[in-house]
UniProtKB/TrEMBL annotation:
Residues annotated as binding Mg(2+): D8, D10, E168, D169
Pfam families, A to Z: Hydrolase (PF00702)
Cofactor binding annotation: Binds 2 magnesium ions per subunit.
Protein name per Swiss-Prot or TrEMBL: Beta-phosphoglucomutase
Highest taxon in the source lineage: Bacteria
Swiss-Prot/TrEMBL GO biological process terms: carbohydrate metabolic process
Binding-site residues for substrate, renumbered to this chain: 8-10, 24, 43-48, 51, 75, 113-117, 144
Catalytic residue positions: D8, D10
Gene3D superfamilies recorded: HAD superfamily/HAD-like, Putative phosphatase, domain 2
Organism for this UniProt entry: Thermanaeromonas toyohensis ToBE
């Protein structure tokens, strides 16, 4: 029986993945760097500085550490501006119903997002109080696909990793969940998330399936 549910944020609870994309796109065009949806796929679930490193690598470029910090910070300013206007209307379809159902089943809930902006987004969505724990991304040493963030989440809700189900929209996140020994539910494209135990287009109608696991 599963006792814990761990949620990724961007692309699972709300569509901030599109804002991350737009913020990187803006920075890339300012720097004359190539950036498209395909490169963006590699950034999902990946931390800020590492994301910039991937964009630079794709462009055959390298910046000094100082420059990287400077530009990653600039991208964050664009992103922070975009997430200011997030409201409960931006919660993705099926999420509210799923969380209410899991709560009724007595399942512990956590958020494991690589984003340092996760608490702001959760507050703007007015759902932060639904979760028993929100992992502080700033305290995680190794990002996804390392399992650390999910193991920390499980520990903080007092549930063993194998008793958890994780919800992720990124390939890096699915790998992290599998390495943590959790059941991995992918949200999005079957091809991109082929290592997931189960892939759904979105979270509407997922509760009857989950009844098999909880
Ligand atoms: P920030 P998730 C991740 O969030 C995003 O998918 C990724 O695109 C972003 O670079 C990362 O958070 C860091 O975000 O710059 O706000 O700290 O999908 O793990 O919820
Ligand atoms: Mg995500």
């Amino acid at each position: 029986r599963r006792k814990g549910a761990i949620f990724d944020l961007d692309g699972v609870i709300t569509d901030t993945a599109k804002y991350h994309y737009l913020a990187w796109k803006r920075l890339a065009s300012e720097l004359g760097l190539y950036f498209d949806e395909k490169i963006n796929e590699r950034l999902k679930g990946i931390g800020r500085l590492e994301s910039l490193e991937i964009i630079l690598e794709e462009n055959g470029q390298n910046f000094s550490h100082q420059e990287k910090e400077y530009y990653a910070n600039r991208k964050n300013q664009y992103y922070v501006e975009m997430i200011k206007n997030i409201t409960p209307k931006d919660i993705l379809p099926g999420v509210t119903n799923l969380i209410a159902t899991l709560k009724a089943w007595g399942v512990k809930l956590a958020v494991a997002s690589a984003s340092k902006n996760a608490p702001t987004v959760l507050k703007n969505l007015r759902i932060i109080e639904w979760f028993d724990h929100v992992v502080d991304a700033g305290r995680i040493k190794k990002g996804k696909p390392d399992p650390e963030i999910f193991l920390v989440a499980a520990q903080n809700i007092g549930v063993k990793p194998w008793e958890c189900v994780g919800f992720e929209d990124s390939a890096a996140g699915i790998e992290a969940l599998k390495r943590a020994g959790m059941l991995a539910v992918g949200i999005g494209d079957k091809e991109a998330l082929k290592d997931a135990d189960l892939v759904v287009k979105d979270l509407t109608f997922i509760t009857p399936i989950l009844e098999l696991f909880f």
